[in-house]
Amino acid sequence: MSPSHRSKPQKVSRLNGSWVVVALLAIVTAVFVRDHPDTLQLAVNHVLLKINLSAIDRVDCSDAHQYLTDAIPVKGFHVLCIKRTTDSKMQVTGFKDGMLSNHSVEVEADIDAFTHAVEDEMLQLLPPSDEHARQFKQPVAYFTPDGERLEKKIIELQDRVVFLFEGGQFIWPGVRIGHKTLVKNTFGRGDLEMETISMTPLVFSVEEFLRDDEIDVIIDLSMSHLAPSGVALQDGHENRPATDWRTSTTYWLESSSHHIVQDIDKRTADLVKVPISHQESVQVLRYEKTQHYDQHLDYFAVDHHRNSPDVLKKIEYGYKNRMITVFWYMSDVAKGGHTNFARAG
């Protein structure tokens, strides 16, 4: 008989034993709860915790390796493997900056002790450094590897591999060029595969994100409204025309314009694991032959807008900014038309 066949009865036996203990506890509760309610509740909690620790398989920290990179450190992204070892202790293995090297510590199963041992000592996360950071910076956040946000509670974090993001928002790990990530259950398209095509900047490719009928709706809603594209002028570029950098035409397509646009919003949120409330309207762009947009950043760099107080306030001094751009290519051309990432690698 194979080892897998032998293991099944053992697991069932343990679970059956657990149910026997629970049944006995229920009988004891019925008899004695009136006389010793507080003491009995503590005993029940203790035994149930013991059952939980013995019946549930421990997390395997080797599962974390699939999310780690040997290419370049990913600043602000950390992978943790958290195991409950006893009633009061946990072992935490941390992979700082998403790299393969790791460090392990044993900590009390208490959120304050965990924070000090992991965030302060292991990862050495720095507190906000200035008044704007103290006012606007998001707190660190924990996520499952599939992008589900976790509450910072021991019961939520224990016995699993988790991602910690210093910026407070989820970003898929690129791992390495050519790596493929399966994003499950996206709205209207099911499972989608993302391929990493660059680590710096982080760029993924997704095939068949839009259906042909969705592309038709977007184009029909936008073509008659296209107008010359604008730019947010950086310091030193005041009073220069946008056409010095950008010669395309643009239309900002509101989600309320069509239910299909709303469906795509949902799919985009499923893909990037960032809520719809954080999305801008769809920016439809058309590039005719010879038209272009020079090399630029999609986010607003604080150091480039020191002379624009309105821009700085709008982006909360860099802490409320664009973090992800999702391009949809809606037409094919024989040559050109691509996006060039000058630092790609």
TrEMBL record:
Keywords, in A-Z order: Iron, Membrane, Metal-binding, Transmembrane, Transmembrane helix
Gene Ontology CC terms: endoplasmic reticulum
Keyword Repeat applies: no
InterPro entries (alphabetical): P4HA-like (IPR045054)
GO molecular function: metal ion binding; procollagen-proline 4-dioxygenase activity
TM ranges: 12-33
Designated name of the protein: Prolyl 4-hydroxylase alpha subunit domain-containing protein
